[in-house]
Amino acid sequence: MAPSTPTATLHRHHSNFPTIRSTVSCLFLSLLFIYILYYSTVPFEPVPIIKTTINDCQVDPNHRLQTNTSNTALKHIAFGIAASASLWRTRKEYLKLWWRRGETRGAVWLDRQVRTAPDENLPDIHISKGTSKFQYVNPNGDRSAIRISRVVSETLRLGMEDIRWFVMGDDDTVFIVENLVRVLSKYDHNEFYYIGTTSESHFQNMLFSYGMAFGGGGFAISYPLAVELEKMQDRCLRRYPGYYGSDDRMHACMSELNVPLTKEPGFHQYDVHGNLLGLLAAHPVTPLVSLHHLDVVDPIFPGMSRAQGVKHLLESAKYDSASIIQQSICYDKKRKWSILVSWGFAIQIVRGILSPRELETPTRTFLNWHKRLDYTAYSFNTRPVARNPCQKPFVYYMNSTKFDKGRGKIIGIYTLHKERYPYCKWDMELPATIDRIVVLKKEDSNRWDKAPRKDCCRVLPANNKAVLYLWVGNCQTNEVIEL
Ligand SMILES: *[C@@H]1O[C@H](CO)[C@@H](O)[C@H](O)[C@H]1NC(C)=O
Ligand SMILES: *[C@@H]1O[C@H](CO)[C@@H](O)[C@H](O)[C@H]1NC(C)=O
C-alpha cells in the first residue's frame, strides 16, 4: 500500500448511512403517492396507464445509432493521477515511463506545489481542492483518501473536450496505453461503466470487496457516469467518514449510483511481494493494461532498477503491445522439455513434460500481501515453483527485441539468468546448455478483436546447440499443444 495514496488495505469501516427510520418513512410516502395516483386515475381509464408504462420501458431501437460510433482512441481518455508531494521525486519516474506528452491527456493531482523541470515528460500538475470540510475518522488510514477519491470529479471539472473515459491511477501505476484503449473500445462510453479489477489477495478482497476496483491498478469511469458522480460525490463522501481509502469510497458511491464493477483482469493492483515472474508469465488471456506496486516487488528484470525494468519491458511492447507478456506453451520433443513463453518478457524451460493446464497456472514466485507463501491466499489458482527439484525452471529474460525487415518478423533475444540449481539425478539434457533463445513473431495488433486465444509456439530446427529458436504466432488448424 502506498502510504501517500491510500487505496485499499485491511481495515473495517463504519458508515453513517441514513437510518432505517428515514428509509421506512420514505417508503411509506412513496406507497401513499402510488395509492393516490392509482385511485385517482383507475376509475377513468385503467388500461392505457398500463400500456403507456410498458411502452416507456421499451428500448428505443435507434438509441445506439445516435451515439458517437467512431473508435475510441487515446485522445478520448482523460487520466487522473493521484500523487503526493512527499513521494513525487521518486514516483514521477514511473509516470515518465508511460506518459506521452502531446498524446496522453489528463492531470496529476498533488496535495501541494512541487518543482519540475519544464521539459519533463509529465502531465500537467494540479493541486487538489481542500477537503477539511469532510470528516475522516478511520484510525488506520490517511485523510488524503478523500482528496484522492475526488480526483475523477476534479478532472471532469477541468472541462476537457471530447472525453469518453476518465482513467484514475496512482503515481506508481504504469499503464500500457494501447491496451487500455483496446479494452475501453469494447464498451459504449455513452453508457454508465465502472471498469477495473479486484486484488490478487483473497484476504484483501474479503476485507474490501470482490465488487470493488482496487485503485492502484487503475480503473475507468465512462463520461456520463463521471457526470452523475460529480453531482453527488461530495454528499456521498460525507456518508462514509470511517472508510479507509479512496477506492472503497468510490465503490460506495458507485453502489449508490447502482453501477456494478465491470471486471477487466488486465488491470493489476499487485498486492504481492517478491518476484512477479510467476504472475506475469501466466497472465490471463487478456491484454496487459497496468502494473502497480512496483516499489514493493523485485525489479521485473534481475539486475536492473525497478524503473529500468519496466522501461525494458515497454521496449518489447513497442513492437507488439497487444501481445506483451502473452503466454504460449510448447515442448522440445527430443529433449523432453516443457517451454513456457511470456512474449517480450521471459521464457522458462522445465525438464519433463508438464501439461498445458499446469503450465498456465501461475507459480508462487511471489508472496502474498500478508506475507505468506500459501495457496489459500489468492483469488486464483497457483502452483509451487517446482514439485520436483529437477523441475526448477531455467529462466531466460528478454535481452532485446527488434524488427527484422527482411523476414517481416519481430526477433526477440532471451538470455539465461544464471542461478543455483538443486541436485538432480534425472538423466536428461540440462537446459543450461542453451544460453540464448531466439523468438520469431509477427505483430498481431488485432488479436483482441477476436475471441481470446493463446498463440501457438513451435521449436524450430537449429544448427547451433547453444541456441534455441522458437516461433510464436496464430495456431493453425489442428495445431494442438501435445507431445
Ligand atoms: C464523434 O467523435 C469524433 C472523434 O472524436 C468527434 O470529432 C466528433 O465531434 C464526435 N461527434 C459527435 C456528434 O459528438
Ligand atoms: C544483452 O546481452 C548482452 C550480451 O550478452 C549483454 O552485454 C547485455 O548486458 C544484455 N542486455 C540486457 C538488457 O540484458
β-strand amount: 15-25%
Largest sheet: 8 strands, mixed
Report the span from N to C terminus: 44 Å
How many beta-strand segments?
19
Overall pLDDT metric: 87
The helix-and-strand class reads: alpha/beta
Tertiary shape: globular
Question: What name is given to the CATH topology of the largest domain?
Answer: Spore Coat Polysaccharide Biosynthesis Protein SpsA, Chain A
The CATH architecture of the largest domain would be Alpha-Beta Complex
Instruction: Give the bound compounds.
Output: 2-acetamido-2-deoxy-beta-D-glucopyranose
Query: How much is the radius of gyration in Å?
Result: 26 Å
Describe the structure.
The chain is an alpha/beta fold and 483 residues long. It has two domains: 210 residues, Spore Coat Polysaccharide Biosynthesis Protein SpsA, Chain A (Alpha-Beta Complex); 154 residues, Mannose-6-phosphate receptor binding domain (Cation-dependent Mannose-6-phosphate Receptor, Chain A), CATH 2.70.130. The protein contains 13 helices and 19 strands. The chain is globular.
